[in-house]
Amino acid sequence: MKTTVVGNYPKISSDKNAANLRNSLNTWDQKKITAEQLEKVYEETIKRVLKEQTAAGIDVITDGQIRWDDLVTPLAKNITGFEIGGLIRFYNNNVYYRRPVVKSRLSFKNYSAVEQFKFAQANSSKPVKVALPGPFTFAQLSLDEYYGNVEKLTMDLAEILHQEVRGLEQAGCQHIQLDEPSLCFNPDKVDLAIRAINSVFERVSTKKIVFLYFGKVGQVLPNLLGSSVDSIGVDVVSHPDNLDTVIDTWQGKEVILGCLDARNTKLEREEGIRQMVEKASKRVPLQKISLSPSCGLEFLPHETALQKLKLLADFARKLN
Amino acid sequence: MLLTTSVGSFPKPDYLVKARNRFAKGEISREKLRELEQQATRETIQLQEELGIDILVHGEMERGDMTTYFAENWEGFKISSPVRSYGNRYYRKPVVVGKLRRPKPTTVEYFQYAQSLTPKPVKGMLTGPYTMCDWSFNEYYRDREDLTMALAEIIHDEVADLEKVGAKYIQIDEPAISTRPEELDLAIKAMKVVTAGVKAKTISHICYGDFKLIYPKILELPVDQLDLEFANNKFMHLDIFKTPKFTKEIAVGVVDVHSHRIESKEEVKQNIKRALQLFDPQHVYIDPDCGLKTRTWEEAKAKLKVMVEAVREVKQELGLN
Questions:
Q1: Average of pLDDT values for A155-182?
Q2: What residues in B contact A307, CB-CB < 8 Å?
Q3: What band does B233 get if pLDDT is binned at 50, 70 and 90?
Q4: Which residue, among B14, B66, B137, would best test binding to A if mutated, counting the most A CBs under 10 Å from its CB?
Q5: Which pTM value belongs to this model?
Q6: Of A7, A202, A304, B4, which sees the most CB atoms within 10 A?
Q7: What's the pLDDT band for B178 if we cut at 50, 70, 90?
Q8: Residues forming a β-bridge with A207
Q9: Which of B48, B294, B288, B5 is nearest to B171 (CA)?
Q10: Smallest Cα distance from A194 to chain B, Å
Q11: Beta carbons of A69 and B87 less than 8 Å apart
Q12: How far apart are the C-alpha atoms of A289 and B48, rounded to whole Å?
């Protein structure tokens, strides 16, 4: 059984000898180190994160989004028409992001993730997945002061993300994921979201993934199963009914079960994961199932994130 | 009218940051650290007096973080290694691993010390039960409600102890309260336990949330005053409080605590005037958006100075006294 991660990963290590990105960002902010010195620390950190996932035995890894403060601003900075606004809570977490504010018609300016992908893949023996904000979630997390029309905003973002995705594909990326947590909280907009997702992935031949986390998927998963994506990730921890939804509505696509709680330190028992997988496999063939944490691992302290990754990979190995 | 105050934390002077690091490594004693914490507290009180602030805070020089500090002092908690909350800001998150208990009053000593330095009122500063729950990992209690209510009992005892030693203003912060609007009833129920029978003025600071989701229900939170951020989002959510009428005292955040930029006096005056279009000046307090600990000492000072000057001029212009 394959394993993967959802996206972000703790930026600082519990190992005191590891490069300390937090300190380096502070000293850089105080102009005590140069941009080149900071860049070195970024690179070392990303290499460490790639290595830790690989060593744990995860099959499809990410660069941990080490250069990203949050899911949307790294892209918003490379899109004409956005300004970066004030801090606001990221869903129901004690984590905050700067809200992109739409000031004028949005258009693609620069690639955001392509160079980052190239660096990560060049330093990894495992395939590196890139997770981007899905067009619907991107629109929901932004403050619209221009369009006055969520559909137009979402579809313009889809067009911009499409260019990013084509850039990633050309750079050799094989796994591209759109994160759509907002869809869980706006199920009435599922048709718009699917249209936008299909538009992002149009004529794209990489593995096309959508991940839903933080909320209830009952009202959106059935429709999403009819979209053009190859694989759907579902957080089955935040809402206990989600696993049932997967089982009740599955038809053909690959499923990533986000089965380890990436928002609580309590370590899962293997027995619990086994029960979930057994339950899912009554409907979904085992070769169509892979396992992951419930969302990005950056909500956890580093040592717990690593423990959970090992737990996940060890369990998957036992199943094989 | 238009009394000035602060939300809670002040920047830690360099000597204190260093001392805290050295203490963590076991290089200096608890007594030495306390001495420097008191020195920084004195400087914080002095600064606020010099600037002419009306209701003071002690600056939280003894606290690393608004939840972790309590977790460190209460049984049943352990502390995680740092997790990131935004940008390059991290905090050590409390982990609930057993039944919670407060072995002795937690904040009384520092409150009394700060109050002894000034004739002006100093606020007692606490973190609310809902936020303590929301910002902790829970490995012990059955669910969020059980944990929140256990915390409410403990925080009530702390409020009672602060009142006993003379605190006239007690602030119980609930910045997490808008996180899950479906749990607002739980937060209100818990605050009822916290403020039961309390005569001191009670305040709750709430920030970085979507007020649309919790207004007007939040008016049921049993405190006298709500302290809200406005500057950070350019007063965009002021309109939310138009209807129904706001029925509590309000402290209005008029300077952004997350930017290095010092606002101009005109800008702050405008912010104050915008708030006065909606709220009755009798019930308005003026402060920064949030705690100042992420600013440098100079930035904090400059932001407070411009705030106090702006309030003074607005009062004159509008004939408020």
A1: 98
A2: none
A3: confident
A4: B137
A5: 0.88
A6: A7
A7: confident
A8: A175
A9: B5
A10: 26
A11: yes
A12: 60
- A74 touching chain B per CB within 8 A: no
Q: Report the chain A residue with the minimal C-alpha distance to residue B132.
A: A94
Contact A298 B83 (CB under 8 A): yes
Best CA proximity match to B289, nearest among B213, B179, B205: B205
Higher pLDDT among residues A225 and A132, named by residue:
A132
Contacts of A30 in chain B (CB under 8 A): none
Residue of B82, B83, B179 with shortest CB distance to A89: B179
With residue B106 as reference, give the H or E element that holds it. Answer: none
pLDDT of residue B56: 98
Helix (H, G, I), strand (E, B) or coil at B87: coil
Chain B segment 259-318 residues within 8 A of A by beta carbon are: none
* pLDDT at residue B58, as a whole number: 98
Structural domain includes residue B77: no
pLDDT band at A195 (very low <50, low <70, confident <90, very high): very high
Residue A43's identity, in one-letter code, is E
Asked if B139 lies within 8 A of A85 by C-beta distance, the reply is no
* Among candidate residues A202, A225, A200, A195, the one with its CA nearest the CA of residue A212: A225
Q: List, in order of start, the domains of chain A with CATH numbers.
A: 2-319 (3.20.20.210)
Structural domain includes residue B172: yes
Say if B93 falls within a structural domain. no
Cα separation of A149 and A8, whole Å?
30
| Closest approach of A300 to chain B, Cα-based (Å) | 6
pLDDT surpasses 90 at B41: yes
Q: How far is B118 from chain A (nearest CA, A)?
A: 35
| Whether A111 contacts A119, CB under 8 Å | no
Residue B211's domain comprises 3-15+45-61+103-132+142-318
pLDDT band at B163 (very low <50, low <70, confident <90, very high): very high
Chain A contact set for B213 (CB, 8 A):
none
Residue with tokens 């290089």: B27
**A with B: how many residue pairs have Cβ under 8 Å apart?**
73
pLDDT score, position B57: 98
CATH assignment of the domain containing B312? 3.20.20.210
- From the list B143, B117, B137, B132, the residue with the least C-alpha distance to B57 is B117
Interatomic CA distance for residues A238 and A184, integer angstroms: 11
Domain tally for chain B?
1
**Angstroms from B93 CA to nearest CA on chain A:** 9
Alpha-carbon distance of B185 to B190, in angstroms, equals 9
Is B74 within a domain?
no
The verdict on a CB contact (< 8 Å) between B210 and A89 is yes
Q: What digits encode the pLDDT tens for the residues A33-92?
A: 999 999 999 999 999 999 999 999 999 999 999 999 999 999 999 999 999 998 888 999
